[in-house]
Amino acid sequence: MNFMKREQVFDKNAKITNERYVVIDTELTGLNEQKDSIVSIGAVKMDGRLIKIRQTFHRLVKPKTSLTSKSIIIHKITPSEVEEKPLIDDVIKAFLDFCEERIIIGHFVSIDMTFINKEVRRVLGTFVPNHVLDTSLIYSYLKKKYPRKTIFFTYPGEMELYEMAKRFGIPCSSTHDALSDAFVTAQLFQRFIPMLVGIGISRIGDLLHIASPFTKDARYRLSGEIVNF
Question: Of the candidates 43, 62, 66, 149, which lies 20 to 30 Å from 198 by C-alpha distance?
Answer without folding.
Answer: 43
